[in-house]
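Dear support,

We are seeing what looks like truncated structure output for some complexes. This example has three components. We would appreciate it if you could run it in full and send us the complete token output so we can diff it against ours.
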Amino acid sequence: MVETGHFALILALVLSLVQSLVPLYGAHKGDARLMAVGGPVTVTGFAMIALSFAALTVAYVQSDFSVTNVWENSHSLQPLIYKFTGTWGNHEGSMLLWVLILSFFGALVAAFGGNLPATLRANVLAVQGWIGTAFLLFILITSNPFARLVPAPIEGKDLNPILQDIGLAVHPPLLYLGYVGFSVCFSFAVAALIEGRIDAAWARWVRPWTLAAWVFLTGGIAMGSYWAYYELGWGGFWFWDPVENASFMPWLSGTALLHSAIVMEKRSALKIWTLLLAILTFSLSLLGTFLVRSGVLTSVHSFASDPSRGVFILCILTLFIGGSLALFALRASSLTAGGIFHPISREGALVLNNLFLTTATATVLIGTLYPLIVEAMFGDKISVGEPFFNLTFGPLMIPLLVVVPFGPLLAWKRGDVFAVAQRLMFAFGAALLAVLVTYLFIDGASVFAALGAGLAAWLVLGALTDLALKAGIGNVAPDVALRRFLGLPRSVFGTAIAHLGLGLTLLGIVGVLSFEKEAILVMKPGQVMEISGHSLRFDGLTPVRGPNFTEEQGNFSLLDAGGQPSAVIMSSKRFYPVRQMPTTEAGIKTMWLSQLYISLGDEAGDGSVVVRVWWKPLVTLIWGGSLVMMLGGFVSLLDRRLRVGAPARRKSAQAKTSPVTP
Amino acid sequence: MLFWVIAAVLTLGASLAVLLPLTRRAEGEADASHDLEVYRDQLGEVDRDAARGLIAPSDAELARAEIARRIIKLDAESARQSKKTSQLAPRQVGVLAVLAVPLLSWGIYAAIGSPSVPSQPLSARLSQKPADSSVDELIARAEAHLVANPSDGRGWDVLAPVYLRIGRANDAVTAYRNAIRILGSTTARQAGLGEAIAGSAGGIVTSDARVAFEAALKLEPADPKARYFLALAFAQEGKIADAATAWRLLAESLPVDSPWRAATDQAIAQAEARAAPSKETAGAPAPSQDDIDAAASMSSGDRTAMIEGMVATLDEKLRQNPRDPEGWLRLVRSYQVLGKTDLAQAALGRAYAALGRDSEDGRKLTELAGSLGLKVTE
Amino acid sequence: MTRKQKRLSVIAGALAFLGAATALTFYALGQKASYFYMPADLQTATLQPGQRIRLGGLVEGGSIVRGQGTQVEFSVTDSEKTVKVRYTGILPDLFREGQGVITEGSFGPDNEFIADSVLAKHDENYMPKEVADSLKAKGVWQETTQ
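Here is the complete output from our reference environment:
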């Protein structure tokens, strides 16, 4: 089975090579048969990689230590779920997952791209093939997951304990779905450059791919952030760590791409810019992969790095980024420019959005790469951390957030900003009220906290105002308004929901940064402590034996007003003997939107223990807001206008979704 | 065999994926029809939005005009575009592509694959016949059994000496302790425990080991292993004369065919050889030299290998848990007596880093380093 | 305004914005980036008073002293020189004696290093890359070969 997987992976490489060259040549020569090779080859290549991934998974689940990769990252005593997720909890396996997702997306384009112009489809698949070939070569040459070990050891070295967690089992696949989803946008962009023209269908294809990739990437980043929050045991949700920045940069530019693709789809404008953004976004995804995989940057939570792999990925990076940008420089002038618009219009607002987002991306990029550049040029080791990003990223984001509610309300082509401002008066008044209430009635609220709360309220109410106005609530009879509301295009809902989610996330961040309470104290069993009006009793430590770890479990009771325990919170210090590694399992009690977070410190001899307790108000909104943003993206994705008008199926599709006309 | 069949089927499938589209007749469509379709869709969309009241009728009219302009432009464009479809099918490219699939894949696999290595799921390895299993597999099976039944004293008792023999001294200590706890103390177990403790300490008879040997002697005063190691403890403390006496007493009481005779005789000879020159060069000999010689001379050369293995284990352990002053002392000494001065020096550096140079443990290290002739740079 | 003038003013606005963002970025890099030193490097380094740096090395054994509340003092060493570090806050999970650590902050008036963040790597070797590089150069630490 293992060798079958290995062989299937090699076959996938060869198929991917065919996929890179034959359709491209066919498109060049105008040969329909050669172009037609692209589809079946892509789908078969995906099947091969899936088989290969399944073989590796089986090796993991069966603890086949004759596979070096399994021996290094698994242990027979591990719970089954982590044997399973261990497949991608390491460098080799995660790269295999990366190409699996890549080929899956390629197969989707091949399977559902029948309504694309044949040359565009052939070129897109060929570009996907290049990426696939590069990464399959990378896997087979530098990080082959199917390398064998003879004689096979009888026991493995265990998966890194901090990865033995369900959060981290879900995080990489989501993140990769996002990263790799942008590869399709990239392929479409490069294909358009190869052809020297952008079809009208282009934006309609790129927009949903961008949306889907963006939804996954949002989820991946939120998941990673929540994982770091509870698993690393120091209660932070974002560290401006290079690894985090690596996923954040494609998110920022992907968000920009999402918005510019709207302009392109609706107004045929910003074509060249959208193309460039598509290239840049995937380039940043590749850069992220490089930064995480090569270990060139110090990160608080990087693992498994190898410089020789770094060089290989750097080559891939240079080839793809350099190549695509060179192609862009060569061909961009031959593309026709799109429609014109007034600076104050929906298009103008989206351009402003792009300007801010790409500039923010650039500052994050500079902050992340600056240490590398300085070390390479001067040999000095420097680091760029939170203070830098607070000073640069913050000032860029705040004005952007302030103008977000204006965008969806402005008319296409030529808008009236004063009329929009008038319509937003209610939201503005409410936001102002939120500022005052926060500042005057909440203890310890700073001006910053009050303004932050106000900005969050502005975003949330602005999004709701957008929906209300589009439905005509207040202007027309309630039943008409309701019908109009229900009849609104899903993309309008999507936009409003996503913007609302952004406001919620902001509210969570402001809540934690401004109102967090923290206490560190030594607690004896039976001792009670107070934090932000909650009484917490320490009930003592219990040693517990897990399948592949031992832990000291700290039991805490949350006391109600009468001093009776109302809830139990468990926080523990685990020790994984195979890797000789301790981990902290934070005890978290969610109370509505806020959380009580308990982390155990060192144990004193007499049964007392150092306890760190945080009260984190509204913290769940940070990730809850991200989920809402994802939902917004998903709802937009369902909008029929984003589905490509298929010539063959057009009539039936229209019949199904024909709107209720008044 | 099955693997080759599967590989052949996969290759066939992959080749067909390339071949079949080449044999079929594919019809290319003109690109303009796609664009037109999109624009037509957009027109429909504008109509719907206008009907729903989302956009004003005047705006809808403007949008329709704009889309109409695009359609006109499209017509002009497609009229300009020349038909570039060539009827010359580049057959060679197709043939090359089809051939590449089997040739390249089998070629690469021949270079990097390991077709002769079968899959070895752990459960299958553990359930095969004991006679076919390697020692490691048998141990793993016993371990799996003991994880499920940790109170099986006999299991621990059987496993302990096996651990000791293959150099897993730390596991041997645990196994002996468990056996003693569950089944009670016997001479063999206590002496084995002592040997295991000494083994995990890099061949040095620590105070813990001595306690175990003494417990063994309490049960059976003539036990040769315990007596041998207690004598070794004397030698390691520098009491060469006491050690030699103890070994001589042991040698006298040993039966002729005892497995301990050879080792004991050798130890006596070594101790005498060491005692003689030490009188001449007052205080010069490093006592630790005795340790290693005594340990090494105990039996055949594989014991040296075992000691090196133990030292490596200790080194690894200290990497994981550097707060172990006694461990560091042992490691530095062991490397020096094994003749690996550079490693000893490196270990010293690490020990200082872990324990602090000015701490009490640090001073002990400095003292030891001085006596071993290592550099103590300030 | 003519259409051309309008377009020019928009472009000028965008350029001004980008210029301001660039200036801000480089100002922030100058102000907020911190250099990495090992204790022994400090002899040759010229530091402005209050300049932010990153200090890396091994946590010296037996040097951790816990003070009031969240205050902690420990020494960072590279086996040549040792620097006392004062830190108020939460030490990371894998902060241990004898293990690699990176602290960030600046020197206080009494030549003690006041750290505002402490990082320990989440990996079985507990060795941040900069620290490992420097220690390898000094021959103190070797990578565990597997």
